[in-house]
Amino acid sequence: MLSSVGYVLGALCEVAGYALKFCLALILPKAVLAARLLAAQSQLTTELNRPDARRKRRRRFTPGFRLLWAALSELLDGWEDLVHLMKPETVKRWHTRAFRMFWRWRSRNGRRPLSGEMQRLIRRISRENPMWGPDRIRDTLLLLGYDAPCAETVRKYMIKPRKPRPETTNWLPFLRNHLDVSWAIDFFTVTTLSFQVLYVFLVFDHGRRMVLHFAVAAQPAMEWVIQQLREATPFGRQPRYLLRDNDGIFGYGVRAFLDSCGIKEVRTAHESPWQNPYIERMIGTLRRELLSHIIVVNQQHLERLLREYLEQYYHTARPHQGLHGETPAQEALNGDGELISMPVAGGLHHRYYRAAA
Questions:
Q1: Residue 304 or residue 331, greater confidence
Q2: Are 352 and 339 in contact (CB under 8 A)?
């Protein structure tokens, strides 16, 4: 008696489940119903067409069946509940394989070739500036208004030097805060042809990566440094913070001058140049791009070289990655015609313009 009652209850529950599915089918859109019907019919057809001798063997699905289920897995929500002959992981694997085949067919012609004009421009700039890397050349082309390719493509068409210079490690910025309101000062030395040691004093703006003031002296003193700071900070142009090292030449007078101007002095730790990285990077740039390739004759010669490099190239034509490819002076390079180059520092670098069309 109990077994017959349980049988009847089970049958009623099964009928209720079918009724619920039927009501749900009435609500679903026709496209979803068609997709569900196609999923069920495809599996039923595969199973009916399977020979009796292979019933116990592993099923082998046709390419069309696999493509159908790859499309259903992308377009139909809840497709995992409709899979009965295989596992959902198998369908996902079919989808990945189909996408790979489609993308291989889509990319059969390769990338769009670089125009001959752009190839010639890259070779020209790399030939005229052997110290420039692909990133510098690309930023320069973008600054001039060209549709420049990526750095790796630029590297492909560059003139290969006989003795390539070693790769240098990129430095990471340490001062992220107060860039627009902080400056830095520092000294570096240059040896002349007569073995005289000259001291170069720099005042550097962190925000625009710009050398605001420089001066050269053979024997600098604290009073001389104060005078240079006075010239670099006219009325209305001064920073909130000034970074410097613990060089004894600054003395107590520099601290008193900064306090009188309302500038907060920030000293780096002893023997820690990495704490003042921006101006150290600037000094390294001056050495790598200018001073390491020229023998300085005297103080006047050094001042002329620095002024020409900073005013005609570094501030107005050299793109900076830290400034998103812009120049410190934000000078607009107009024109869309032929590329014209102007040598700087005797041809060590070149400044580029585009003539008006």
A1: 304
A2: yes
**Mean pLDDT in residue range 322-336:** 74
> What residues contact 147, with CB distance under 8 A and at least 6 apart?
118
107 vs 92, more confident: 92
Top pLDDT among 249 and 308 is at 308
> What pLDDT does 202 receive?
95
Q: What are the residue ranges of helices labelled H in the chain? A: 2-27, 30-48, 63-75, 88-106, 116-128, 134-143, 151-157, 222-232, 251-261, 277-289, 299-309
pTM attached to this predicted model: 0.57
Query: For 281, left (φ over 0), alpha (ψ -120 to 50), or beta?
Result: alpha
Helix (H, G, I), strand (E, B) or coil at 312: helix
CA distance linking residue 74 with residue 92, whole number of Å: 9
Residues in the chain, total: 357
In the structure, how many helices (H) and strands (E) does the chain have?
11, 7
